[in-house]
């Protein structure tokens, strides 16, 4: 049984981003981004109409969408604690992978079946929106629309997926885009020798740092100013009682609209979120493909390989350069309790050796076919390329915080989610017009429910 977040979180206090994080594969391949360290020595203005905190995909998309909706870019600044897009958006595993049905049971338990259906429909919508957006704006972010496999690696997990699939379908969930394969076909289609069963549905992959950087660049071209290495320490009420003062090491900026796109770090500035938000360090690895997965053998789909709900591995293979990005869940029974406990942290300066070893071991089991030289070693240049970590903001009820911050007029939160719906709310539209499930809203009702958990 996996330890609860409350148990793991003991002793880990809210924090801002830690300086000098390690670089991910994505960051290592985008060092020439001209705005990477934008305005790092400049003071912030005294006033600005919209202040976005955080330059990940949420913050970048929020600034872009505000300008799309007619706000003058000159009225928007973005404050980023480290280099541009250096949080989870610059260090994830590259999947653009909707949950097709698996989360239905969990979401239903927390939010009821109606919201669970909306959450899963929203997942599918997000994939379509990303595809549409990338095509419309010709975003060079290596987006590759394909399919994904949920590979069941044990009979127990196969039974679990079948049960959830059926419950989702019976509740009215759309499964018309999901294909199921029994053992033999699953093994042929996925090329995973020990697969017991598999599901397949549309999904994609991208270069997340290129996507965030494209959004930031587009916003900057429209007049938005990004201040990097400018960490916000607090937000206080301005003397006039209506605006907010945002405190940074390079001066304070007064604003009517504060938009917290700070993901795992959100509770530093919004302490009311602290009991419900856990920083979770995830680790990913880039691997240079051996011949079994190169050239015409390159994998066309992405993967989630599951032994149980919490013990799984994820893989994408990039179409452009064939690099494979392999992720390890924190629920692996092969990891020690110390390593598991160490995953609840804001520390992303390095990676965990035990998780790396587990990744390489599983890699050989799941994707055999390495070339060996005469001494039995990997061919030089193939195999492990790089390992890195990043911090995920996990909410206790599995959905992000999106919407107005209750009791703090003019403050908005968009933590652990893309920035689309929030802009409609900021510009005065009703929740129904955002298309987001109601349970994403951090209102009093949700806070009470979370507190009673
Ligand atoms: C290893 C890993 C693998 C993942 N794999 C996937 C995947 O395959 N697919 C997927 O969809 N998602 C994945 N995720 C999750 C995904 O990356 C996030 O959900 C997404 O990037 C969140 O974007 P964001 O903009 O909300 O947050 P972030 O990208 O984390 O941005 C928040 C920003 O706020 C800044 N900030 C925080 N506090 C302050 C402050 N006080 N002052 C100034 N700036 C501040 C941070 O420095 C950061 O840049 C993964 C995450 C990790 C870490």
Polypeptide structure, described:
The chain is α/β, with parallel strands linked by helices and 453 residues long. The protein has a domain of 194 residues: FAD/NAD(P)-binding domain. Helices cover 29% and strands 23% of the residues. The chain is built from 13 helices and 18 strands. The strands form 3 sheets. Strands 3, 4, 5, 6, 12, 13, 14, 15 and 16 form a 9-stranded mixed sheet that branches. A 6-stranded mixed sheet has the order 7-2-1-11-18-17, covered by helices on one side. A hairpin with a 5-residue loop joins strand 13 and strand 14. The chain is globular. It starts with a helix and ends with a helix. The mean pLDDT is 92. Bound molecules: flavin-adenine dinucleotide. The site of flavin-adenine dinucleotide (FAD) has 37 residues, from helix 3, helix 9, strand 12 and strand 16.
């Amino acid at each position: 049984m996996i330890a609860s977040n409350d148990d793991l979180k003991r002793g880990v206090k809210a924090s801002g981003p830690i300086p000098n994080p390690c670089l991910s594969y994505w960051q290592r391949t985008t060092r020439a981004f001209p705005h990477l360290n934008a305005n790092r020595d400049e003071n912030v203005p005294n006033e600005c109409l919209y202040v976005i905190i955080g330059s990940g995909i949420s913050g970048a998309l929020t600034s872009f969408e505000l300008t799309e909706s007619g706000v003058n870019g000159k009225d928007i600044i973005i404050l980023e604690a480290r280099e541009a897009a250096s949080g989870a958006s610059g260090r994830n595993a590259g999947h653009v992978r909707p949950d097709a049905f698996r989360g239905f049971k969990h979401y239903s338990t927390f939010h009821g079946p109606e919201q669970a259906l909306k959450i899963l429909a929203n997942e599918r919508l997000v994939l379509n929106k990303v595809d549409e957006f990338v095509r419309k704006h010709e975003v060079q972010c290596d987006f590759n629309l394909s399919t994904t496999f949920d590979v069941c690696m044990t009979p127990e997990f196969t039974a679990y997926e079948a049960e959830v699939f059926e419950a989702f379908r019976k509740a009215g969930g759309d499964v018309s885009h999901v294909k199921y394969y029994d053992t033999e076909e699953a093994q042929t289609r996925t090329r995973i020798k020990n697969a017991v069963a598999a599901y397949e549905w549309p999904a994609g992959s991208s270069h997340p740092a290129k996507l965030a950087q494209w959004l930031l660049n587009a916003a900057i071209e429209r007049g938005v100013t990004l201040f990097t290495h400018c960490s916000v320490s607090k937000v206080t009420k301005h003397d006039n009682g209506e605006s907010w003062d945002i405190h940074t090491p390079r001066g304070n900026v007064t604003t009517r609209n504060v938009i917290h796109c700070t993901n795992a770090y959100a509770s530093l500035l919004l302490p009311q979120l602290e009991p419900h938000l856990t920083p979770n360090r995830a680790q990913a690895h880039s691997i240079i493909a051996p011949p079994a997965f190169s050239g015409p053998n390159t994998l066309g789909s992405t993967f989630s390989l599951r032994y149980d709900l919490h013990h799984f591995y994820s893989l994408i293979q990039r179409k452009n350069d064939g690099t494979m990005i392999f992720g390890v869940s924190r629920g692996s029974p092969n990891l020690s309790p110390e390593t598991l406990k160490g995953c609840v942290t804001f520390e992303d300066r390095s990676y965990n050796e035990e998780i790396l070893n587990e990744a390489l071991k599983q890699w050989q089991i799941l994707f055999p076919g390495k070339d060996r030289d005469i001494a039995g070693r990997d061919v030089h240049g193939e195999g492990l390329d790089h390992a890195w970590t990043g911090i995920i903001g996990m909410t206790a009820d599995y959905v992000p915080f999106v919407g107005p911050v209750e009791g703090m007029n003019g403050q908005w939160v968009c933590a652990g989610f893309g920035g689309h719906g929030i802009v409609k709310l900021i510009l005065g539209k009703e929740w129904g017009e955002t298309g987001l499930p109601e349970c994403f809203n951090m209102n009093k009702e949700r806070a009470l429910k979370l507190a009673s958990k």
